[in-house]
Design a protein that fits this description.
The structure is a single chain. The protein is α/β, with parallel strands linked by helices and about 475 residues long. Helix content is about 50%, strand content about 15%.
Length: about 475
Amino acid sequence: MSTSPVSQRTATDAPPAPVIAPWKRNYRTALIGVDVLAVAVSSASTALLRFDLYDPLSPRLAVPWSVVLPCLAALWLAMLSACRSRSDEVVGSGTKEYQRVATATLWTFGLAALASYVAQADLSRGFVVTTLPIGLVALLAGRWLMRQWLLKQRRAGRCLTSALGVGLVADLADIEADMDQLRAGGYEVSGICLVDEPRDGADPGDAALETVLGDLVRGGYRAVIIFGGLDRRQLRRLAWRLESSDVEFLLRTSLIDVAGHRITMQGVEGVSVAHVDLPTFDGWQYAVKRVSDVVFSALALLVLSPVYLVIAALIKREDGGPVFFTQQRIGLNGKPFTMHKFRTMVPDAEARKRELAELNEAAGPLFKIAQDPRVTRVGRVLRKYSLDELPQFWTVLRGPMSIVGPRPQLPEEVAQHTSDDQRRLLIKPGITGLWQISGRANLDWEDATRLDLRYVENWSFLNDAIIVIKTVFVAARGTGGC
């Protein structure tokens, strides 16, 4: 990374000509292939399970399912393109990519239902009930897998867009602090343009703008990220100068940990302002969340009951101790509750905690030892794949917990909460959450707190679904378990 000096440049400097990076073209092509595969598999599997491909759609419309399914698949893929689900600005990071995939899927089936009504055809409800969720899960899973590959490439220094950071000397700390997050989002800040001082002999109002444009030309950057230093008139003129190029124009916002679905741009008497929805912690959405928790946890307890029996037998066989470990945790609004997990430590683990205190590797109120001698052989396997958490579905069914939420807090942890940390208690704790898919036991106290607060502020149904899907993959890999 280099700091570009403020030097003499002319107003005829132009940003790089439009060129699409090869990796973007290839990645977009790969996404199309993944979408085609997901739609084809969901349509074919549903048809094989429920329909004879040569049966007509209905007695009134003698069109076989072998024709209807390819048409529906083509409409689905067209809607994914129409909703711009593969646009450069949404793929690879954030939730907008997933939101657009979900929107395209709902539009597809909405249009299919409308078409069947107009044609007086009976589109099977069983077909919709099976194809829509199977296809949506397949699409989201495919996009997530592609994103994991892309993140791996970015960590290795590939598939990155070279960006110029623009700001004042006072913004340097923010630029440095945001480097890793920007890199994960696909931007490599490989140059910094400081605009504190105007160019000699130039109009002070144009000096900063010409400085930025000159650095863009010299460095061949494909993105410019404004951290500060330019007023609204200069920002507008910079956008005009970039509109005929392929340079991305980004503004670094001071809104910390505010998800995109809470921000709406509004025009107030000709002034563009960002309207931020303030968090709410009651209402119909939370009622629906509770209903989904009950249904999901009841199904999990029913389907996984054989797994529960096997794990219980293995725990009992190893040392003859109790199968379950119960512990007091603090839940919604500071109310204590009893949480159940499969026991992964020796029966006297709590009594031995004091003698191991000097081996604690965690900061803050957490207690963590990488190779904890109290963990049993069966317990290590259960922890690695998060199988010890399975009894918590019973706690969810009872009500104190949710499927997705902040990490359940111990009383001694809550005792050390700051006023900001207390916001973690505004939502029920969850079996999984952002902390579970972002490092699990490898997170320190500050990172876990930050992720919990981000979840509390930005909860949504789509985010919960994404977290659940990611949890399955993370637990299957067994990374980050303690």
